[in-house]
Amino acid sequence: MKTLYKHIGLYILLLNSTMVISQVNFEAKVSKNKLGLNERLRIDFIMNENGDNFTPPNFENFQIIGGPNQSIKTSYVNGEQSFSKTYSYFLKPLKKGRLVIYQASVTIDGQEYKSLPVELNVTDSVKGANSNSDEVYFDDDNIELIASISKGSPYINEPITIVYKLYYKSPINVSDARESESPKYKDFWSQIIKIPQLKVERGNYKGQTYNVVQWRKVVLYPQKSGLLEISPLSLNLVLDFPTNRRDFFGNIIYDQTSKIITTGTKNINVKELPDNGKPKNFTGAVGQFEFDIILNKNSLKASESFQANVKVTGEGNLKLFDLPKIMVPASMELYEPERKENVRTNLSGMSGTVENTYTIVPKYQGKFPIQEVEFSYFDPYERRYKTLKSQKLNIDVFEGPTLSSNNDNIIAPSNESFKFIKTEKNFTRIDKDQFSNSNTFLILLSFPILSLLSFMIFYSLPRRKELNKNEKIKQVYKKIKLDLINAEKSIGNKDKFYDLIEKSIYNFLQVRFSIETNKLNKESISKQMISEGIANESIEIILKLVESCERARYSDSSNNEMANDLGIANKIFDEILKNNK
Q1: pLDDT, tens digit, for every residue of 330-348?
Q2: What is the average per-residue pLDDT within 396-419?
Q3: Lowest mean pLDDT among 22-26, 52-56, 63-67, 548-552
Q4: Phi, psi (degrees; rounded to nearest 5) at 252
Q5: Could you tell me if 304 and 321 are in contact, meaning their C-beta atoms sit under 8 angstroms apart?
Q6: What angle do CA 309, 312, 315 make, to 5 degrees?
Q7: Terminus of the chain with fewer CB atoms < 10 Å: N or C?
């Protein structure tokens, strides 16, 4: 009896082991076991569990026409989940006879699995094989990938458009398409136009009806002249095509194959812009444009700021050229411009506006002109250069210091001023050779050199340090003025406003008094400014500004309070910096 139980237990153990092993399945399936030399074959490597490190066989004696294509299917039947993962290849035999497709391998849950070899019988080419294969559908007339180029010989920086289209005839159906090679646009500025969704439409091509898919659209601006190359776009397509076979219900059975299709290399012959008539101020603008300079105000007080917008609007290479610079009188401070772009790019190229916004601060009162500015561009349609001029502008500055002329302060010398000069000579002749060999001559000769060296050692180096310091203070003064201008624009935004005020104060203190950042407190500020001879009233105002900045972090501030603090900051900085220039 015990022996019987042992045999039953061993049988159950073997049965369970067999069930566990049979849970993982990895096999190779072919579309046909017998085919002609001119036919194609599909082989699928299928696993019922997700695996990694798939390694195909070397496909000896076969040419890979397409693949690998990967597909995953998950389904539920009666509440049970089923899974399959498939790697598919499309093959063409290279010789007749009995050929073998050897094992493929895959790793599932850390264990390696191999498919069984598949034996095939390849016969002579089959007559009329095209009626049962895909070759009848996939010649160059039935499926093409075209790159349509808007212009084959543009100028430098003249836009061209390339639209990539896939054409194929029914009853072919494209079930999957991926880029196997993407075009490269070397020596071009490029912008890809987004296609929200690929759509199949009907269209005419070569006088026949095709299915058409717009795959990609791109706008190019060539950046140099000559014959420029555009590398090909290649697609790996999975195609469904009908066979002569029918299912039980009489429906046509479709087969599947893979095909790589390409546009081939394209060449663009780019023309150089003509030298004839090229203006000296030309910076590379190509298109059709309008140009102007716009001031946000033309009447203001001295030390207030205004903005000048240098603006170009139109169609062309708006992102690829420099805007002209404006010129202002020496009595105004001109800050570096801020560039803004509002440019759209579509199939016709770039269009919109680019502008440089300058901040300008006049120092004195009076009426000052803003010189006319020229902007030149090349019009590719008219094939000539054009130059636009801005309108003449004037700035009226009031309530500030006036420019003074010193021409009336020149004092003419009188005859009495030169009575001390002797008019009679009293010289004695000396021996030239005797004097040149004397110690007196050597001392007199070396004295200028020694004096120059002494001057360089004891005067030049400290003087240079002082000049560098003054130049640094001057640069910081400009930054402070710009921060205060931006603070004026930020009234209403408490955090940004007081950050700019605080930044202005600390920048000044660090450079003017060499106070380290970690020692920027009221006590050190007050002590250092007293030692530098700053008036107590000015010190108190600066400390109150510091308190306002600190208080603003924890409490609200009205627009009036901000405007008042800004006025105090402008006044105190002008006063202190003016006395230390």
Answers
A1: 889 999 999 999 999 999 9
A2: 55
A3: 548-552
A4: -65, 135
A5: no
A6: 155
A7: N
Rounded CA-CA distance 504/279 in Å is 43
Query: Are residues 339 and 401 in contact, defined by beta-carbon separation less than 8 angstroms?
Result: no
Contacts of 367 (CB under 8 A, 6+ apart): 394, 395, 396, 397
Q: How far apart are the first and last CA of the chain?
A: 116
Query: Shortest CA distance to 119 belongs to which of 255, 28, 26, 25?
Result: 28
Question: How much is the pTM?
Answer: 0.55
Separation of alpha carbons 289 and 377, rounded Å? 8
Strands (E) located in 37-194: 41-47, 52-55, 62-77, 80-93, 97-101, 105-108, 111-114, 118-123, 143-149, 160-168, 173-181, 188-193
Measured CA to CA, the distance from residue 550 to residue 282 in angstroms comes to: 51
H or E segment at 497?
A: helix 494-513
Q: Taking all residues of the chain, what is their mean pLDDT, rounded to a whole number?
A: 81
Please report the domains of the chain, with CATH numbers, ordered by start residue: 23-126 (2.60.40.740), 143-270 (no CATH), 287-398 (2.60.40.740), 469-579 (1.20.120)
Residue found under tokens 């004026």: 488
